[in-house]
Design brief:
The protein is α/β, with parallel strands linked by helices and 381 residues long. It folds into two domains: 151 residues, VC0802-like (2-Layer Sandwich), CATH 3.30.2130.30; 188 residues, Vaccinia Virus protein VP39 (Rossmann fold, 3-Layer(aba) Sandwich). 31% of the residues lie in helices and 23% in strands. The chain has ten helices and 14 strands. Strands 2-3-1-4-7-6-5 form a seven-stranded mixed sheet. Strands 10-9-8-11-12-14-13 form a seven-stranded mixed sheet, covered by helices on one side. The protein is elongated, with a radius of gyration of 23 Å.
Length: 381
Amino acid sequence: MEKFKLVAPCLLGVEGLVAQELRDMGAQDVEAQNGHVLFDGTPQMLVRANLCSRFSERILVQMGTFSARTFDELFEGVKALPWEQWIGKDDSFPVRGHSLSSQLHSIPNCQKIIKKAIVERLKHKYHVKWFAESQCLYQVQFLIMKDQATIMLDTSGLGLHKRGYRKNAAEAPIKETLAAALAALSRVRTDANFYDPCCGSGTILIEAAMYAMHMAPGLQRHFSAQQWPQIPERLWQQERDRARDLVLRDATFMGYGSDIDGAAVDLTKDNARKAGVISHIHAQKAELADFAPETEHGCVICNPPYGERLLDLKQAEALYRTMGQVFPMRHGWNYTIITADETFENCFGRRADKRRKLYNGMIKCQAYMYFKNHTEPDHKK
C-alpha cells in the first residue's frame, strides 16, 4: 500500500488554496475540482495532509469511482473494491454520504446497499458470517453525483476545522478553515500588524497568527487513521516533529482584536491560549466606531454581523457605514471584509478592489478586498 488516491473536500471557493498547499507539502498529481481536490499520496502524505492542511475539511482515501444508475450497479461496484486491504474482520465500517442529481436518491437505501456489498466482500475474504465491528473505525463515505459513485474512507474523524482550541465560541462564529483561507488570500505576513475589530471568539485572529507563524493546525488533535495498522505510528510522530520544526518561533506577527461584547473578548483570550498563540494576541472590549490603530502598517480582516447573522439589516448597514469611516485607505493598509450582504459596498462607501465568492458554512458570502492606495472618499450618507 505504497501509494493511493486521496481526496480533500473543501468549502466552495478555496479549492485553489487547497491544491497549492498540497503541492507545497509534496503531494503528486494534484487536481482541483468543484468542492474538493484530488491528489496522490503515500501513507506519509496522508498523515501530513491531516496535520498540516489549513483549508481542507477532511482527508479521504478514494476507494473507487464508477457509474451507478441502479442498486445492482452500486452493489457490484462497491463489492469489487479491495476492502480487505483496509478493514479487518473485527473493525467497524459505518456508511454515510450524499446523492445529488442521480437516479439513486434515497440516502438510507444507498447506505444499506453499500454496507451489504462490503459485508459480502469481507465475508468471502475472511470466511466469517458475522462482523463484531468492535475495533478500529473505518468510516465509509459515498458521493453519488450525476449517477457517478465515489466511495471513500475518512481518515480524519472530526472535520479538520476542529483544531482543538475552540471549545467555546461566540454566537455565529466563522469556520476555522474559512478564517485561514481569508488570512492566505489577504497575504498575512510573519511580521504583520493584524486587526479584527469584530473578533467574536477570536477565530480569525488565531488562524491568522497560526498562518503567519507556519503553525500546523492539527498539532493538538487526534485523527481516525491514527488507529489504523496501515499507517505506522512512527509516521505520525515524524510528521508532528517535522511540523513543529517548521514553526517560526521568532515571527513578530501581532494580532489586535476588539469586540463590543466583553465575554467574547474573554473567549478570544482563552482560545488563543489553548492554540498556543496568546503571546501574539491582544484583545480588548471596544466599539467599532473607536477603531483607531496606531501602527504605520496594518492588515484588517473581519466577519461583521450581517442580516442573517445577529443583527437586523438596518443595524448591519449602519455598521458597514462606520467601517467606511474608521478604516483609512492609505498606503500600507489592506482590508478584507466577508459578508453575505450585497449592499455592503454601497454602505461602506467604496467599491472593493477585488471580490472573492466564498461560503461560510452554507451561507454564500463575498470577501470584499481593499488594498490599493486610495484617497479619502466622500462617504455616502
